Amino acid sequence: MSVHRLNHRDHIGIADNTLFYYEVTGEDRRTQVTDYTESYSDWRDFTLDVGNFKVIPYGRDNDIPEQIQQAVFPNSLGPRLQNRKVELLNGQGPYLYKEVSNGKQFEREPVQDEKIMAWLNGFQYQDHLYRNGVDYYYQNMVVTKVYLDRASRIEGISSVAKVEHIHAYKCRKAYRKNASTETPTHVIIGDWENTNSNEFDVYPIFDPNDPKRHRVSIHISSVYSYGVEDYAVPEILGALEWIRRSTSIPKILQAYTDNSLNIKWHIQSPAKYWDAKRHILKENCKAENKVYKEKMLEDLKLQILTKLQELLSGVDNVGKFWHNEQVIEIVGGTVIEHGWKIIPIDQKVKDYIDAQLKIAEKSDFATVAAFGLHTALGNVGADGKSDSGSELLNAYQIHQLTSTNLPEYHVTKALNDCIKLKFNTDIKVGFYQVAAVRQQDVSEGLRSNRQTINPRS
Fold first, then answer.
1. Are 125 and 95 in contact (CB under 8 A)?
2. Are residues 155 and 196 in the same domain?
3. Fewest CB atoms within 10 A around its CB: which of 19, 33, 310, 402?
4. Whole-model pTM?
5. 3-state SS record for 299-314
């Protein structure tokens, strides 16, 4: 007997060759974008205490990065599409350039500078930029630790010793408890999923107007989100429900085919019930001076659903009963019922499977669209069919022209700010892109179908 989590709202249970499907219904604050119940302007009202600092949570429950990771990683499409965008951004790799004008438009002119390259190679800058790209596409935020030389504190001397990539996943903005304003001044780095962890590193935020102020500081470059003060709202956040749905369908079908299960019960529980449980857990954590994590509620869900499953399954449930209180609430003229429902499912397995496949098709389409990458570039053709070469070429050209400039700006900004500070030059680091052309536009001898590969000696 076991209960498995599909997402924060749905679970499946397996017992005695019977499949139990659990669903949370009603207003659920954690279905953030689907129900528009997450308020993005009040995160400062839910600060966390860490030492002498007030930490501004990333989302009301401080778990937006965790939500993204847990939704995307198990998905069959998400990780590949994200990696593909990083590959397309990287192009032929990073290079140094200057912006020059030919009298009609600005162009990039590749340059060579031994001093800058020696400094960049000192901390493996290519790996640094690759990791920045991954953080950007998952979280729309890039975090870099900047180290200044000791001599940089001397008047008139500005020298950056090195930079270091920091996982944006682990970073939260903060301000001192005795500060006169709630404007973040520091970044706290730690394990926000471990409720018992007290190991946090604190650094001041890099100040571009006074870059020599701190010997070690945190440079942050992130997308501006409308009406949100402290963090970027990741672009894929709004698609998490579709991504989770895309992930859950194969699990449901696998459970059915592997166990020859009869899908017998559909159990609905009110979101208000779990909100009350969440409140109790938060109060307990506050009394014990612990940091509340949503995983605590998920663990409690599994315990309660497992007990319910024991009640409903098997032949030993004779004499057992289930008591449930039904609460009716009227919100804006709409009647909302808050109560548990145990609904037997008509055993029309084919109809059920067909419905799940249609949902899977729709959710996969929405998932691909949410990642903002043409299916041809992600090697995900519609209905399993390969895209034509012309469609692939057009998709590539449009993507490189319209969808890489802003990511490149944020991914390279810390390095370019440091190059400006250290070398006092307009030289920048960027990604070298090669324009793709049609085969008929290439001389015959240089076409790919005419080229040969020399065997290894």
1. no
2. yes
3. 402
4. 0.73
5. HHHHHHHHHHHHHHCC
Q: Does one domain contain both 258 and 215? A: no
DSSP label at residue 386: P
DSSP character string of 64-86: HHHHHHHHHTTSSSHHHHHHHHH
Strands 200-204 and 327-331: unpaired
Residue showing tokens 């992930």: 247
pLDDT tens digits for the chain (457 residues)?
566 666 666 666 655 555 566 667 664 434 433 333 567 888 998 899 988 999 999 998 898 999 999 999 999 889 999 999 999 999 999 999 999 988 888 899 999 999 999 999 999 999 999 999 999 999 999 999 999 987 655 555 558 899 999 999 999 999 999 999 999 999 999 999 876 667 899 999 999 888 888 999 999 999 999 989 899 999 899 888 888 888 888 877 776 666 555 556 677 777 778 888 888 888 888 888 777 777 788 888 888 877 777 766 654 444 444 444 444 554 444 545 556 777 766 656 677 778 878 888 888 888 888 888 887 787 765 455 555 667 788 888 888 888 899 999 999 999 999 999 999 999 999 999 887 655 555 555 554 444 444 444 3
Task: Please report, as a single letter, which amino acid is at residue 178.
Answer: N
Helix axes 78-90, 405-423, angle to 10 degrees: 50
Cα(390)–Cα(386) distance, integer angstroms? 12
Does 186 share its domain with 273?
no
Per-residue tokens: 375? 């299916």
In this structure, how many other beta carbons lie within 10 angstroms of the beta carbon of residue 322? 10
Containing structural domain, residue 29: 2-36+237-373
Residue with tokens 């599994």: 302
In a domain, 379, yes or no: no
- Both tokens of 349, joined, read 């397995």
| Residue 359, in any domain of the structure | yes
Q: How far is CA 213 from CA 146, 149, 209, 365, 415, in A?
A: 12, 12, 9, 49, 18
C-alpha span between 171 and 165 (Å, rounded): 12
DSSP string, 328-339: EEEETTEEEEES
Do 312 and 216 belong to one domain?
no
Dihedral sign for Cα 119, 123, 125, 129, please.
negative
Q: What's the rounded Cα separation, in Å, for the pair 239 and 405?
A: 23
Distance (Å, whole) CA 420 – CA 308: 63
